[in-house]
Amino acid sequence: MATRRSALSALVSATVLAAPLALAGCTAGSTAMVGAGPSTLAVGLTAEPQNFDFTTTDGAAIPQALLYNVYETLVKVDSDGEITAGLAESWDVSDDRTVYDFHLREATFSNGEPFTASDVKFSIERVQQDWTISLKSGMDVVERVEVVGDHHARVVLRRPSNSWLRAMTTRIGAMFDPAGVADLANDPVGTGPYDVASRRRGDSVVLTRNAEYSTPENPRPRPGYRTVVLKYYADATALNNALLSGGIDVISGVTAPDSVPQFEADNRFRVLQGTTNGEVVLAYNNRRAPLDDVRVRKALTYAIDRKALLEAAWGGRGKLIGSMVPPTDPWFEDLSGAYPYDPDRARRLLREAGHESLRLDLRVANLPYAVSSAQVIASHLKKVGVTVDIEPLDFPAVWLQQVFTDADYDMSIVQHVEPQDITTFGDPGFYWGYDSDRVQRLLTEADTAPPREYIADMRKVARTLSDAAAANWLFLFPNIVVAKKEVRGLHANQVSESFDLTGLRRQGTS
Predict the structure, then answer these.
(1) Model confidence, pTM
(2) Per its UniProt record, what PROSITE patterns does this chain match (predicted)?
């Protein structure tokens, strides 16, 4: 079950993180490496990590860069959202679903230390004892970790959990060496195919092949590129121009939908469009009047034409979902028709609630999709007698403090990208302030239920939240990747926390 702040760690891929920290070696110039040759790949992104410690710093930018690339997990998710082998070559689960036996592959940390079951025990226990970020609650269900042998780790859960193994595909499943955690903010030590070579603040992070990843004693397929430069851009225009001019090879995620046609018409590039876990949510502050009245929440939801909003905010790209469940989740059910655009019904509900005239603040992250969506929402709500005061807040610092932490808002908009984050509605302390005994009970029952009942139980949760208009799920954020045609191995879907570089290669190489 998620605890308070459990989705903070995955709020929008554009999350910029906590206070700046210096990184040794940051004077190495990454820009000079861009386009340096066929062994170098330059990827354009918008979310620059301000440090490399995702054990104490929430946000999506650090795992986007480091997860699977520098840090590996026992299990990972593929582009279809399926759980696959990682550092664990295989695993067995007891009949009562409380004991997991992981059989580990040979691997070596970038500092030369071998990866063993002792590191599994250290890493899991460290999440429970030392991590401070929101996602750490995913490890609460673990009772103990046993070292059965050097390459055999046993994890014992307090109760059956349908969600725990998937949680292990996220950053909380990252494996650490006890000798490599002294300076996580500046010096990551992992078993992944890449190592952090240098960083230029406000510009780039350079990853180079980890020399310890594949050795004669431990052969593993090397990544296709010797060097990867992660280049960070403050706005969509600069990002697009960098690809058009040859300064980068890949845009990890297009942030301006109107720029897509120019890439589609240019035979130098390939455009891949897929899905994400990123629900763009109009949050209602359920603990604050008048939004503590279900009639008001329903009225606001009926008053917004989500199809028109998607067209205006993202050129019609993306998907209407109507719940906190993306199509890649096994319990997805299309609830997008639950609240059809109906301003007359919205007015009636507002009259019933005694609010024919209403004024609400809409404090949104100052990100393009959020600001565009807010303008459409304000226009639609004005037609039913609701005046909306839009206030863009600097993201992440101001938004995280004012909206997420202090819950000082009426409505807000941000994208939530944490996998299976519907569980946040089971936490009354989460920023939407939604407190439902029924939802909390259903979530607990679903997590412990036999697998055959899990999907049906989670659908009950989604329907209950929809019936209560606990929030307004505007649309599912699309994943649009643009790359030079010679870059191979990219996937259309982005359903993990990682921008996984491990399978990328240049055309004509193996």
Answers:
(1) 0.84
(2) PROKAR_LIPOPROTEIN (PS51257)
